[in-house]
Every structure is written in structure tokens, then in C-alpha cells.
């Protein structure tokens, strides 16, 4: 059962990667990014990093919001190209074929084992990796968190400043 | 730009570099570099000009690539050796990766192609920040790496000095010339990095002084091409008569300051039995010297014709403070006799 | 050394503080006093050869004639430049004299240095004022080209020299001229040692200039203003010969074989550049090529490495310094009147300026090495030491002497004899400034006949 679920997640991860890579309009592209992020976090959960996945989802959600807003604000096409339109669909099919060919290269029976998630070793350990990370972060990483928050704030400033230029005809 | 925003950005610019200086942990150093990169982006784009936006985008992309590579290198290092300390890199693979990432960040030769393009899109004060302050953080990281592969740095250094000289030969744009000169100087610094890091530090300080005065001179003249330099004698006669000396100092001619780092580096290289590399580096300095010489020809050694009203601006007071320029110009011309004191001062 | 160096440094405030009316006389007087003070360097009673020893500088019989020549040239340059700068703004005149003074400071420190590396730094330092003299104060657009040639020829030779000197310092631990002759002889066997040998000498051979790397010199001479030509011919070329004499001590075992091609090039250059002089139309270019030809003899004399060779080279360097500088001054007096350097256009000047013709005659005779003059003394010593080395050199040196006489005669007849062309109607008469200038060149040359041991160098 777990194998099927993780297969689904990994497949979804690849498909949504292709959805970003085949160059649709920014609107759809950022949707693809959300999907990538979601599937990626699910893969991490599947391999046992629950807390890490939670943090990742939260960061991704925040970031995706920003990306959505600004891609909508900066590059609102009048005639958006979704995955159905000609060039994009062609690229998507090409990438898909590429993935298949590449995976065909590596397709051997013994890799099949690795597709399942062997969490059995880690469950025996006294302390899971990401829980240790939590305790470290709360004990010593306080200043680091402050700096990270500062950096995020700075990013917001920078994005504001750069997007202001749009109205002055900086992008042509 | 709103002064509050400007203050915030400049503060973060300082914070990022200081963070990198202070950290012994790769993650924190990386974060400092990222803060640094982010903070300069609105400054680069502040003039709402498509060329500036293009330069900003290029800069952002290369710096992000370099930072990602650096993060990857430090992660690999942690994976392979279990160490996050910058000074405890012991595996050759992440060390090489990190050196290359930092080389991309400061614009060493095979990875330098973004630098002229980016600098060309900026105004001179921002270009000054880009070619001085932004080099500090990556170079301190490079200084702390324990080089495993000695030939890598020498190859990087030699290609930088050669390409830095070669690339500038064909340029008429001052900012591109300065970009190539920056590449060439960084090549000298990297050449001696593994033998005498304190010498790299000294070279960096002297390079910063000379670049500072060069940018300020060009800014005072308000000129970005060789042609506009020609009328500088009418704008600031004293500066335009000192400028060729400053340019030749940048090219490293003897009794001027710029000769000191070259001399000391060549001495260190010959001490390490690298006389062919030393000779090659010394001769590649001739390539750079050629375009500095051309600049000084245009600026002071020929008198361009000027119309009658064009000769008057020297009577007006300069619109900028000339004290920083005066100090840095003096330092960039006449520090050679103080070589022993300076080498003692900048011992790591 | 400070006795001369400090007044030379103080010449700069003198230049900038004196009122406009007294600028040229006071600069001239000040520099002439410095030149007189520098004569004390001739008095050398020390047994080691080194006198006036300070921690960084000293003189010995080899360097003192060149030092005095340097100091002697500054008042002459000031005297010669006075006319063509009279139309410039005052601050530029002051800047110009300051430039000449800085050149003298660097040259004194170069010839007086007791460390090879200080000699090197000062050798390079003279490049910047000379470059500015050529490219800023020259007259034609080609001066930029000439400046570039000058700078890059010299630097391409001297940057390997820097590396070679640093290698020498690593091997012997010192670069002091006082101790280098007493250090252990180097074991020079490998191919890289031969490269090192070439690196040590190449810079000086380019500076001399050796035939083959001489192309920068005629360009620089033709484009430079009169003071630039004078100092270039009189002193700057001698930096090369001086450096070679100093350097050859360390190159002992290799020079015997490796110097062959260079001696041959030098002697071949005597003939070739002499022949170029014979078909030259440009007066300054002719004098420049004659410098190359004389310097070829000097290179040959130095590379032979006998006491006679060294002595002859030093004498010829001093004598040639005064003679060629005088010739450039004479060419400049013509140029200031006729505004052309082409000899076909400015000929027959004996009719217009008869006293100048006398000076031309003496200078041309000095150039072709007339018997009692020190020029002949130098040439004879070099030629005989070359002859001692190989009989076949006589073919080259003998032909060279003949050609020298021929082109000196050509130069004299072309500029002075014959009818005055019709287009020259209003020539200024000769100024007494110009007579003084030439007299101050030729007087020392004639007086040296009486006491040549002043410029004999180590042989004295």
C-alpha cells in the first residue's frame, strides 16, 4: 500500500515538474510550482521527515502566495498559454518522453526495491533526525531565526522596490 | 528612492557582508551572501532604465547560481565529513566546488563574463559598490578555505590576469574596462592566495583604494566612455593631470602604489619556484597597462579641441565632495615607500 | 648623496614659488648649482671603490660619471626648452620643469642605488616622466604611438628582469651591489638558468637599444620635445649600459657562450643603423639612428667583459651622451627657425647662421670620433678589445667607423653647406642662449681630453 502511495507522489512530482518546465504562462507555471512543492513535501513525509515537511509546506505556502501575486501582477498576459495550447503541449510531451527514455536507461529490477521507503532503521533510533533539528533550533538557533526573518523582510522590500519600476516603464 | 528604504538597503548591504565576515558556519556565511545580493538589487535597478534592469537580472541570476552552488558545496561537505565549519574543509570535492562558486561570485576569469555586462548597466556609484564592497565577502570566504588543489587557483589566477587584460583591450566603455581591470586584479590576488593569504589581503586593500579613486574621478567627470574623458581637462584640470598617474598605478608601474602588490606577489611566486607563472602574470600586466595607457592618453596627454563655453566649467565649484577622492588618490599614488609598514599592518 | 638629492627635491618648490619673470633664470641657476655640487662625486679616494656611502646609496668610479652627466643635463634641458615653452601658460611651464626635475631625481636614485631592486624600481620610475614628456609635450599626433612603443618595449624587457632579480635574491639572499660580487658563484647549468641569463640582460639590451629591439628609439626621439630627446640620448640609454655592467658580475659562467649572438647583433647593428643614417631625410631621426649605432659598439664592449671593454664602453657612453645631446640641441635650433626636420627643406644654413655652423662642425666631428676627443678614446678601446676577442670583428667595426664618418659628413653638408633655399627669408639670428647651450655641451667634452681618468671607470 505504502509503495503505491509513494509511487503516486513521485509520479506527481515528476509530472508537475514537467508542468513547470514546459514553459506555460507564469500563472500556470506558478500553479505547477505549487504542485511540485506539495508533492515534494509529501515525498519527504513518506520518507519520515514529518516536521521538516511541515516547515517546508509553511514556507512554500508563503512563498507561493507571493509568487502568485507577483506573477499575476507583473505578467498578466492577455492571451495566456495553458498546457493545452500548441507549443506548451509539444514541450510537455517532449519532456515526458525524455523522462521515460532516461528512466528506461536506469530501469533494472534491483532498483525496484528502493522505491519503497525503508523507514525501519530510523524507527529504531533513539532520536529522529528532524526532531533533533527542532530542539537545536529552539535552543541555539534563535539569532539565526531572527536573521532569517530579517532576510525575508528584506526580500519583501526588494520585491516592492523592483515591482514599483513596472509603473515607470522599466520593463519593455 | 525613499531615504528610509535606501537606509534599510544600505544597512542590509553592510549586515550581509559583516555576517559573512563573522561566521564560521557555512550556512550563516551563505545567508550573509544572500542578504548582500538581495540588498543591492534595488540599488542597481533604481534608475528605471531597461539596461539597468537587464544588468540587475543578470546579476541576480549569476549570484543566485553561485550561492546555490556554494550551498550545495557546503551541504556536500557536511554530508561527506560531518563538518559545517568553513575552516575545516577537508574533502577536495566540496572545496573545489566552493572555490569555483566563489570565483563565479567575484568574477574570476573563466566565470567572469557576467561582470562587464552587469557593470555596464549601472551608474558609477553603484558600480563602485559592486566592484569594491561586494567583493569583500566572497574573498574572505575564499581566504578561509584551505586549498586542496593548488593548480586550480593558479590556473584561475593566470587566466584572470590574461583575460582581464585581453578583454579590456577592445573596449571603449569605461565601465567595461573597469570590469576587466577588476578581473585582472582579482587574478593577481587569487594567484598568491594559497602561499601568502596576507598578501592577498594587502592586494585587495590596495586594489580597493585605487578603484575607489578611479570611479570617483570618472564620476566627477561624469563620463562613461573614452571619448567623454577627452574634455575632462576643462572640467577639473588638477584631477585630469593626476589621473594618468592613477591609471598607471592601477596598471602597476613602479614608483606608484600599484607596483607594490605586484612586486610582493612576484617575489612570493618566485620563492615558491613558480618563476614561469610569475613571468606570465607579469607580462599579462602589460595587456592591462595598454588600456590604462589609452585612457590616460585620452584624458590628459592629448588636448581635445573644445568650444569656448566648454572650457569654462573648471571655474565652477565641483558638485561633489572631493575629500574622499583626494585621500584615496594620494594613497593610490604614493604608498610604495611605505611597503614595509603596510605589509606589517596587513599580516593575517 | 643627499647633498645633491635634497637640493634637487627643493628645486620643485623653487619652481612653483618663484614669480613668473624669474622662473626660467632661477630654475636654471638652481640646477646649475646642483650640477656644480655634483662634481664632488669625482673625488673618490676610497680603496673599496665605493664612496659617499649611505645606507641605500653610494657612488663608485662606474656610477659617478653617469651621475654627474645626469646632473649636468638638467640645466641644459631647462636652457634648451625655454623658447618652445614660451607660448605655454605659466602653470604648464612650471609643470614641465617639475617633470624634468622629477626625472633627474629618479635618475640620481637609479645610478646611486646600492640595491639591484632599488635600481630596478628607479629604472622603471624614469619611464613615467619620460612617457609624459613624449606624449604630452611632443608636437605631432604620432607621439602617442611613439609613447606606446617606448613604454611597451621597455616594460616587456624589464618585467622578466624583475622576476630574474627576485630569483637571484632567492638564490643568494641579497641583491646589494656591495655584497653580490663576494657571494658564492652560482651554479648555472640547466636550460632554465640560460633563460634566467637572458631575463637578466634583456631589459638592458632593449634600453640600450640593441639592434633588433631598437624600433622604439627613433620614434621616441623624433616625437619627443627637445628636452626629451636630450635626456633620452644622453642619460636614459646609459641606464641600459650601466645595468648591464652591474649585472654581468653575477652571470659569470654563462656569458662566455651566450653572449655571441648579442655581440654579433650589436656589431651588425652598427653597420645597419649607420647605413640607415646614410639615406635618412629626417634630421632628428638621423641623430637617433646614430645613437643606436654608437650604442651597438657599447653593447659589444660590455659583453666582451674585459677591463678595456668596460672602460671603453663607459667613456663612449659619456662622450656620446654629450655629443648626441648637443646634436639634438642643434637640430632643435634649426627646427625652431624653419619648423621642419626634413633636411632637404632646411639646408645651406651656413649663409644664415654662420656661428652655428661652427658648432655643427665641432659636434659632427665629435660624432665621427675625431682624434683627441673622448669619443675616439672610447671607440678605440672597444674596437681593440673586440679585435683581441676575434679578428673578424674588425670587418664590422672598421666598416662601422667609416660609415659613421660618412653620415656625419652627410649631415653636416646637408644642413650647412650649399646655397640658402629661397623659401627661407626671415630667420631669427642665433640667440646667445643657444650658443651657451651648445658651449656647455661641448666644453666638458673638450676638457675631458685633458683628464680622461674621470670617466675611465674601474680601470682608473
Task: Please describe the structure with a list of short key phrases separated by commas or semicolons.
heterotrimer, A: about 170 residues, flat, B: mainly alpha, about 0% strand, globular, Complex_I_Subunit_2 (chain B), mitochondrion inner membrane (chain B), membrane (chain B), transmembrane helix (chain B), mitochondrion (chain B)
| Proportion of helical residues of chain B | over 70%
> Roughly what is the average pLDDT of chain B, rounded to an integer?
89
Mind describing the biggest β-sheet of chain B?
A: none
> Regarding quaternary structure, how should these chains be classified?
heterotrimer
Low-confidence stretches of chain B: none
Number of strands of chain B: 0
Category by helix and strand content of chain C: mainly alpha
Structural class of chain B: mainly alpha
User: Largest interface: which pair?
Assistant: B-C, 29 and 29 residues
> Quick one: overall form of chain C?
globular
Strand content of chain B: under 5%
Summarize the structure in words:
The complex is a heterotrimer of chains A (about 170), B (about 350) and C (about 450). Chain A has eight helices and no strands. With about 170 residues, chain A is an all-alpha fold. Chain A is flat, with a radius of gyration of 20 Å. Chain B folds into two domains: about 1-115; about 150-305 and about 320-345, no CATH class. Helices cover about 75% and strands about 0% of the residues of chain B. Chain B is built from 17 helices and no strands. The longest helix of chain B is centred in the N-terminal third of the chain and has 32 residues, at about 50-80. Chain B is globular, with a radius of gyration of 20 Å. Chain C is mainly α and about 450 residues long. Chain C is built from 18 helices and no strands. In chain C, helix 1 (about 1-15) runs antiparallel to helix 2 (about 25-40), helix 12 runs antiparallel to helix 13 (about 285-305) and helix 14 (about 305-340) runs antiparallel to helix 15 (about 355-365). The interface between A and B is medium-sized, with 17 and 23 residues.
Amino acid at each position: 500500500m505504502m509503495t503505491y502511495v509513494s509511487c503516486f507522489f513521485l509520479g506527481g512530482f515528476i509530472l508537475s515538474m514537467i508542468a513547470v518546465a514546459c514553459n506555460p504562462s507564469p500563472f500556470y507555471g506558478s500553479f505547477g510550482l505549487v504542485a511540485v512543492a506539495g508533492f515534494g513535501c509529501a515525498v519527504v513525509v513518506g520518507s519520515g521527515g514529518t516536521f521538516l515537511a511541515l516547515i517546508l509546506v509553511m514556507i512554500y505556502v508563503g512563498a507561493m502566495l507571493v509568487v502568485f501575486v507577483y506573477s499575476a501582477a507583473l505578467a498578466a498576459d492577455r492571451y495566456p498559454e495553458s498546457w493545452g495550447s500548441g507549443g506548451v503541449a509539444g514541450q510537455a510531451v517532449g519532456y515526458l518522453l525524455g523522462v521515460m527514455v532516461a528512466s528506461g536507461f536506469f530501469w533494472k529490477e534491483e532498483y525496484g526495491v528502493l522505491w519503497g521507503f525503508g523507514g525501519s532503521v530510523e524507527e529504531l533510533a533513539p532520536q529522529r533526525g528532524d526532531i533533533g533539528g527542532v530542539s537545536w533550533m529552539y535552543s541555539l538557533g534563535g539569532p539565526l531565526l531572527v536573521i532569517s526573518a530579517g532576510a525575508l523582510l528584506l526580500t519583501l522590500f526588494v520585491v516592492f522596490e523592483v515591482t514599483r519600476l513596472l509603473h515607470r516603464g522599466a520593463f519593455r | 528612492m525613499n531615504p528610509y528604504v535606501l537606509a534599510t538597503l544600505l544597512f542590509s548591504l553592510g549586515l550581509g557582508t559583516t555576517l559573512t565576515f563573522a561566521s564560521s558556519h557555512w550556512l550563516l556565511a551563505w545567508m550573509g551572501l544572500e542578504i548582500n545580493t538581495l540588498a543591492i538589487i534595488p540599488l542597481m535597478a533604481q534608475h528605471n532604465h531597461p539596461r539597468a534592469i537587464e544588468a540587475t537580472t543578470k546579476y541576480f541570476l549569476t549570484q543566485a547560481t553561485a550561492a546555490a552552488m556554494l550551498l550545495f558545496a557546503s551541504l556536500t561537505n557536511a554530508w561527506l565529513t560531518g563538518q559545517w565549519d568553513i575552516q575545516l574543509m577537508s574533502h577536495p570535492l566540496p572545496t573545489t566546488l566552493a572555490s569555483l562558486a566563489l570565483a563565479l561570485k567575484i568574477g574570476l576569469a573563466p566565470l567572469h563574463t557576467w561582470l562587464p555586462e552587469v557593470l555596464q548597466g549601472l551608474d558609477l556609484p553603484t558600480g563602485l559598490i559592486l566592484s569594491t564592497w561586494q567583493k569583500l565577502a566572497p574573498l574572505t570566504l575564499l581566504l578561509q578555505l584551505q586549498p586542496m588543489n593548488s593548480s586550480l587557483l593558479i590556473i584561475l589566477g593566470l587566466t584572470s590576469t590574461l583575460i582581464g587584460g585581453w578583454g579590456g583591450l577592445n573596449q571603449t566603455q569605461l565601465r567595461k574596462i573597469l570590469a576587466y581591470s577588476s578581473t585582472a586584479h582579482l587574478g593577481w590576488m587569487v594567484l598568491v592566495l594559497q602561499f601568502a593569504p596576507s598578501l592577498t589581503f594587502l592586494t585587495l586593500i590596495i586594489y580597493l583604494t585605487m578603484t575607489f579613486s578611479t570611479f570617483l574621478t570618472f564620476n566627477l567627470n561624469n563620463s562613461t566612455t573614452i571619448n567623454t574623458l577627452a574634455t575632462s581637462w576643462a572640467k577639473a584640470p588638477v584631477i585630469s593631470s593626476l589621473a594618468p598617474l592613477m591609471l598607471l598605478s592601477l596598471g602597476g608601474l613602479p614608483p606608484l602604489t600599484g607596483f607594490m602588490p605586484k612586486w610582493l606577489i612576484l617575489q612570493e611566486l618566485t620563492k615558491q619556484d613558480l618563476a614561469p607563472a610569475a613571468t606570465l602574470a607579469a607580462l599579462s600586466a602589460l595587456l592591462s597597462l595598454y588600456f590604462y595607457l589609452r585612457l590616460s592618453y585620452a584624458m590628459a596627454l592629448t588636448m581635445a579641441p573644445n568650444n569656448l563655453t566648454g572650457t569654462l566649467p573648471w571655474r565652477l565649484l565641483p558638485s561633489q565632495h572631493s575629500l574622499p577622492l583626494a585621500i584615496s588618490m594620494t594613497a593610490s599614488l604614493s604608498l610604495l615607500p611605505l611597503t614595509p609598514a603596510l605589509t606589517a599592518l596587513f599580516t593575517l | 648623496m643627499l647633498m645633491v638629492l635634497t637640493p634637487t627635491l627643493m628645486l620643485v618648490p623653487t619652481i612653483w614659488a618663484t614669480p613668473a619673470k624669474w622662473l626660467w633664470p632661477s630654475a636654471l641657476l638652481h640646477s646649475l648649482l646642483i650640477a656644480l655640487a655634483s662634481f664632488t662625486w669625482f673625488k673618490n679616494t676610497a680603496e673599496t671603490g665605493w664612496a659617499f656611502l649611505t645606507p641605500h646609496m653610494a657612488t663608485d668610479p662606474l656610477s659617478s660619471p653617469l651621475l654627474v652627466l645626469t646632473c649636468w643635463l638638467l640645466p641644459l634641458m631647462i636652457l634648451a626648452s625655454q623658447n618652445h615653452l614660451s607660448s605655454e601658460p605659466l602653470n604648464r611651464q612650471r609643470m614641465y620643469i617639475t617633470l624634468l626635475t622629477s626625472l633627474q631625481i629618479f635618475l640620481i636614485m637609479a645610478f646611486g642605488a646600492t640595491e639591484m631592486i632599488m635600481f630596478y624600481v628607479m629604472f622603471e620610475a624614469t619611464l613615467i616622466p619620460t612617457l609624459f614628456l613624449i606624449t604630452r609635450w611632443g608636437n605631432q599626433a604620432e607621439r602617442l604611438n611613439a609613447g606606446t612603443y617606448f613604454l611597451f618595449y621597455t616594460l616587456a624587457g624589464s618585467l622578466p628582469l624583475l622576476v630574474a632579480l627576485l630569483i637571484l635574491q632567492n638564490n643568494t639572499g641579497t641583491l646589494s651591489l656591495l655584497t653580490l660580487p663576494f657571494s658564492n658563484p652560482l651554479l648555472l647549468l640547466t636550460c632554465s638558468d640560460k633563460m634566467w641569463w637572458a631575463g637578466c640582460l634583456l631589459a638592458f639590451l632593449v634600453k640600450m637599444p640593441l639592434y633588433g629591439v631598437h624600433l622604439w628609439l627613433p620614434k621616441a626621439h623624433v616625437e619627443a620635445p627637445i628636452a626629451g630627446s636630450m635626456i633620452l640620448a644622453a642619460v636614459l640609454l646609459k641606464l641600459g649600459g650601466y645595468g648591464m655592467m652591474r649585472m654581468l658580475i653575477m652571470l659569470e659562467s654563462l656569458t662566455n657562450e651566450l653572449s655571441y649572438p648579442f655581440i654579433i647583433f650589436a656589431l651588425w647593428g652598427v653597420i645597419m643603423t649607420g647605413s640607415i643614417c646614410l639615406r635618412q631625410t629626417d634630421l632628428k631621426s638621423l641623430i637617433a639612428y646614430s645613437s643606436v649605432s654608437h650604442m651597438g659598439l657599447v653593447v659589444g664592449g660590455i659583453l666582451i667583459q674585459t677591463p678595456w671593454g668596460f672602460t671603453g664602453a663607459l667613456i663612449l657612453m659619456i662622450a656620446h651622451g654629450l655629443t648626441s645631446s648637443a646634436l639634438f640641441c642643434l637640430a632643435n635650433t634649426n627646427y625652431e627657425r624653419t619648423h621642419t626636420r626634413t633636411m632637404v627643406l632646411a639646408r645651406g644654413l651656413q649663409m644664415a647662421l654662420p656661428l652655428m655652423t661652427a658648432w655643427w662642425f665641432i659636434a659632427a666631428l665629435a660624432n665621427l670620433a675625431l682624434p683627441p676627443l673622448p669619443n675616439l678614446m672610447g671607440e678605440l678601446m672597444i674596437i681593440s678589445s673586440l679585435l683581441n676577442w676575434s679578428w673578424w670583428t674588425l670587418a664590422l667595426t672598421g666598416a662601422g667607423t667609416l660609415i659613421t664618418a660618412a653620415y656625419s659628413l652627410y649631415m653636416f653638408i646637408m644642413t650647412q653647406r650649399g646655397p640658402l633655399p629661397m623659401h627661407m627669408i626671415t630667420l631669427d639670428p642665433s640667440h646667445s642662449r643657444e650658443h651657451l647651450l651648445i658651449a656647455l655641451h661641448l666644453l666638458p667634452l673638450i676638457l675631458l681630453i685633458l683628464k680622461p681618468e674621470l670617466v675611465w671607470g674601474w680601470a682608473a
